[in-house]
Amino acid sequence: MDLGLSGRKAIVCASSRGLGRGCAEALAEAGCDLVINGLDRLRLDKTASEIRSRYGVTVTPVVANVSTQEGQEALLAACPQPDILINNNGGPPRRDYRELDREAMIDGVIQNMVSPIEMIQKVADGMAERGFGRIVNITSITVRMPLEGLDLSSGARAGLTAFLAGVCRTYAGRNVTINNLLPGKMDTDRLRGGIERAAGLSGRSADDIGRAQQAEIPAGRFGTAEEFGQICAFYCSQHAAYVTGQNILIDGGLYPAAF
User: Fold this and answer.
1) Is residue 72 very low, low, confident or very high in pLDDT (cuts 50, 70, 90)?
2) What is the mean pLDDT of the chain?
3) Secondary structure (H, E, C), the chain
């Protein structure tokens, strides 16, 4: 399927690995020129080189923390008029809510709510003026199905979702869409780290815990960054112009509800 994205310009935040990289790869395959982002220069440069070589598109790596104004300005300096924005950022580490002090809570809200809103503030009006824009926020299944220890991440991402529910509709008539992708248990470093942590606390092996978690998923497996990226690319495409303000679960059926 031709997604109608050839020659479009995309900023993909936190994209040197994991789900962000999956999105970057899929957009590159569709013909987008990319600005990718991360904190580790060596990993980011390697990712940029591999995507550039594989797909023949322009890939500009920007080492920056998207949670800071300086980081956001660096991304927009590299791509002043993006057609696509993929908001992604690491979440706060798993922690009992009693352990969260004010500073930790503020940092979590900045990471997973304030920063994506700030990026949207900076790009959405320009997209509307040019008559095309696709904004995808990578949030989490925990927006709908909270998990113990991820309360701060869940709350911040839920706040982002509610904040943008009205904002997205002000842009719908100008071919700018804002949607959220809610990953479940995806085969990423974050998931593997959680499994290792659980193994250390329980005395069980990481393989045993991983198999048990997969057994809870109706699809019987963890998701991949590649398939996640392809779904992201579709919601950035010309074919998804009539979809906005939606929360799309990518979870193998883990969330047990009809609505």
Assistant:
1) very high
2) 96
3) CCCCCCCCEEEECCCCCHHHHHHHHHHHHCCCEEEEEECCHHHHHHHHHHHHHHHCCCEEEEECCCCCHHHHHHHHHHCCCCCEEEECCCCCCCCCHHHCCHHHHHHHHHHHHHHHHHHHHHHHHHHHHHCCEEEEEECCHHHCCCCCCCHHHHHHHHHHHHHHHHHHHHHHHHCEEEEEEEECCECCHHHHHHHHHHHHHHCCCHHHHHHHHHHCCCCCCCECHHHHHHHHHHHCCHHHCCCCCCEEEECCCCCCCCC
